[in-house]
């Protein structure tokens, strides 16, 4: 596209057509929200070409791909960010003017995706923005929370939290992709069996199956040429599948149990000061891990025809401890479903996975009660038991007279499963988010692990993208800087 009058006229005509076809009114009669929706769809149509091309190119060239797992994302409003990354601000302003609307009012129509709680979510989105801009083959995975964080109201000087219904209007940027749906299993009774190699594996009887559907949003990289990169943010939802509502339990009067799985992706971080909240939060974390891993393995098989390439072609970034169950689930899935030997599955898992730590506060490092893990995820719990025994035996050989050290590094201790310990043991790299932060991890928080794995820890300074927080947020200052040092700072 360019910003000529002819191109703007064609763009405006497409907007008018979508308004008539979708809403049954003319562009003059349409609401500002309807115009916003139509403009976004026209832009998405243009983006789809590059989005598809990027997917096909990475698959055709059989390149290594990064998969980023996070329970939080805060992408912000996408329209303005997308047209800045596409370099289409003048064109879109011209189109909006031809339609008799104003640019600020169109931008204000978009709801922010309430998929995060703060810094963690913002950094996750900035990371995806950078991956796309630098043209890395990558995909983000998360959960599509129905109500996001919360909306704030003040009543008589007191904060009142209301549901953040950011999905009350259809999101023009996302696409539902049922072809990539997955099933996730909870509870049930493990039955010992063997895979084709003769290794012991657990089969599951009487499990509770939850269906998850993916919604995909394009993340557009900044480039001043037309060959910009587009990667995907794939968000899982249990809300949209009628299979998850258990009618028999509802008719029996167990209303909470009947709707539990449908509600798994309702709210980010359900209040975990009660048993039901803890249960749902653990199910959320495993839901993200299981559905994403199935997706990764399906893609690897489709592109390469074998999973033997996993250690070379797949990188999985565990963002904070929430997706740490990836370690157990990957080992379990490779041994049981794909007949890897235990040792090969464990080596593959360690080669693929890395862990980003975000806190030095020990009380903030996530732990789960072993009994809860055993109840909800019995097969994964048994994998962790075996991994932990194997790990502790190896540590005991190196430090035969230091049982206290073994207790400190153990994944299972005092009836709790330590998720940070699991993530460290199962990853080939562990990073803090600043040099000082990483040094504290090595010297204090994970000192024992740093002694065991001196080459595993590294510092990567996380930052926010200057494209949103300067180029987008302050165009006058951006122009001032660019006139003096050029536009290289943008990338």
Descriptive keywords:
491 residues, alpha/beta, 10-stranded mixed β-sheet, 3-stranded antiparallel β-sheet, globular
Give an overview of the whole structure.
It is a single chain. By secondary structure, the protein is an alpha/beta fold. Helices cover 47% and strands 18% of the residues. The strands form 4 sheets. Strands 1, 2, 5, 6, 9, 10, 11, 12, 16 and 17 form a 10-stranded mixed sheet that branches. Strands 13-15-14 form a 3-stranded antiparallel sheet. The chain has a two-stranded antiparallel ribbon with strand order 3-4. A hairpin with a 2-residue loop joins strand 3 and strand 4. Helix 11 packs across helix 14. The protein is globular. The mean pLDDT is 93.
What is the helix tally? 20
The low-confidence runs, each spanning 5 or more residues with pLDDT under 50, are: none
- Assign the structural class, choosing from mainly alpha, mainly beta, alpha/beta, alpha+beta, or little secondary structure: alpha/beta
What value does the average pLDDT take?
93
**Strand percentage, roughly?**
15-25%
Radius of gyration: 24 Å
Distance between the termini: 21 Å
Give the overall silhouette.
Answer: globular
Helix content: 40-55%
Number of strands: 17
Largest sheet: 10 strands, mixed
Question: What is this entry, summarized?
Answer:
This protein is of the alpha/beta class and 491 residues long.
């Amino acid at each position: 596209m360019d910003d000529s009058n002819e191109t703007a006229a064609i763009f405006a005509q497409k907007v008018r057509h979508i308004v008539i076809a979708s809403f049954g009114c003319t562009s003059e009669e349409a609401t500002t929200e309807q115009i916003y929706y139509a403009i976004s769809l026209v832009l998405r149509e243009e983006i789809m070409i590059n989005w598809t091309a990027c997917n096909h190119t990475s698959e055709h060239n059989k390149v290594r791909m990064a998969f980023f797992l996070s329970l939080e994302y805060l992408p912000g409003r996408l329209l303005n960010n997308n047209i800045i990354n596409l370099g289409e601000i003048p064109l879109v302003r011209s189109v909006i003017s031809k339609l008799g609307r104003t640019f600020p009012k169109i931008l204000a129509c978009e709801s922010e995706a309430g998929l995060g709680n703060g810094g963690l979510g913002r950094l996750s989105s900035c990371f995806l923005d950078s991956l796309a801009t630098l043209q890395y083959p990558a995909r983000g995975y998360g959960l599509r929370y129905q109500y996001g964080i919360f909306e704030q109201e003040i009543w008589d000087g007191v904060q009142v939290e209301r549901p953040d219904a950011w999905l009350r209007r259809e999101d023009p940027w996302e696409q539902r992709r049922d072809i990539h749906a997955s099933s996730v299993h909870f509870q049930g009774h493990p039955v010992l069996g063997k895979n084709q190699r003769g290794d012991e594996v657990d089969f599951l009887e009487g499990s509770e199956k939850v269906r998850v559907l993916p919604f995909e949003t394009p993340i557009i990289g900044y480039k001043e040429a037309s060959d910009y990169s587009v990667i995907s943010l794939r968000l899982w939802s249990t809300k949209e599948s009628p299979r998850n509502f258990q009618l028999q339990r509802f008719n029996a009067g167990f209303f909470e149990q009947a709707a539990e799985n449908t509600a798994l992706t309702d709210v980010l971080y359900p209040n975990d000061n009660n048993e039901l909240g803890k249960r749902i939060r653990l199910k959320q974390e495993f839901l993200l891990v299981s559905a994403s891993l199935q997706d990764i393995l399906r893609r690897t098989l489709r592109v390469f025809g074998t999973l033997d390439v996993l250690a070379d072609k797949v990188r999985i970034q565990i963002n904070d401890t929430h997706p740490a169950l990836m370690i157990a689930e990957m080992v379990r899935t490779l041994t049981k479903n794909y007949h890897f030997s235990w040792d090969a599955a464990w080596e593959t898992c360690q080669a693929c996975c890395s862990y980003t730590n975000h806190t030095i506060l020990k009380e903030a490092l996530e732990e789960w009660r072993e009994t809860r893990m055993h109840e909800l995820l019995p097969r994964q719990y048994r994998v962790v038991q075996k991994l932990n025994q194997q790990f502790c035996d190896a540590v005991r050989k190196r430090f035969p007279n230091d049982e206290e050290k073994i207790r400190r590094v153990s994944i299972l201790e005092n009836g709790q499963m330590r998720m940070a310990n699991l993530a460290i043991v199962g990853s080939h790299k562990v990073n803090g988010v600043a040099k000082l932060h990483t040094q504290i991890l090595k010297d204090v928080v994970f000192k024992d692990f740093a002694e065991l794995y001196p080459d595993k820890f590294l510092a990567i300074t996380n930052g926010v993208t200057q494209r949103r927080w300067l180029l987008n947020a302050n165009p006058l200052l951006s122009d001032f800087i660019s006139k003096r040092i050029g536009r290289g700072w943008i990338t």
